[in-house]
Request: fold
Amino acid sequence: MGSLGARAAELGGVGRTLVVGVVNVTPDSFSDGGRWDRPDAALRHARELRAHGADVLDVGGESTRPGSQRVPPAVEIDRVLPVVAELAAEGAVVSVDTVHAETAEACLRAGAAVVNDVSGGLADPEILAVAARHGAVYVLGHWRGDPATMNERAVYDDVVTDVCAELAARVDVALAAGVDPGTLVLDPGLGFAKDAAHNWQLLAHLDRLQALGHPVLVGASRKRFLGTLLADDDGTPAPPAARDAATAAVSALAAAAGAWGVRVHEVPGNRDAVRVGEALAAARGAS
Reply:
């Protein structure tokens, strides 16, 4: 196994829920409004997340919020590659948040260890072969269409059963493309073609997702369903930056349920929340 494959394997052997810090190198992120859309600003932010205890830095150059416009791989690479390369050179464990095989290839060559593909290989099937060739951790997200169309596809007979079945089908495709089953992580895709009730159902049944045989990443941070939960008396949703405490609560619950990782925008509170969840899980196991 090469150095990248060995590093990827280490992520599965940490023995605790990983904190994955979000680094948006985009002008239109829903969570931060493009505050770190230049490489120098993104690097400063990423270093801060790492200093606060992020285990993995997830660098993305294309917003996937509902209604966002797709970004060509060349533009995405220009945004993320300098950040990925510098962070990897500094010894950080780097993930690239992309649905494009071309971007994944460039970033893995530059030292990324993880490909976080919210489309699960549906947007660009070649990304599976790229992840397989490099031995990268491949986070396979549940997806029913791009940001322009996903909301209209939030229709399920039973969201947990349906998402599990659709993820299992994508796992089969990934394995057939050569992805090592030991490097696969599943993401139920909270907010992607799902309304608030769907998200809560999936969070309530992480055990069924884990029963598919692969670790699970939870990405609830600052998402719209938390804003709805925390709405004012007049129904105005809480803004993204006011959702961090609720995000940390989800992180604690996910850690207690044995999640592989939580993907978050704010690290210190979520790091503490993960410790709380793990302590609760340990106490249950000891009783």
Notes: Confidence is low (pLDDT under 50) at residues 1-5. The longest helix spans residues 267-286. The chain is about 45% helix and 10% strand.
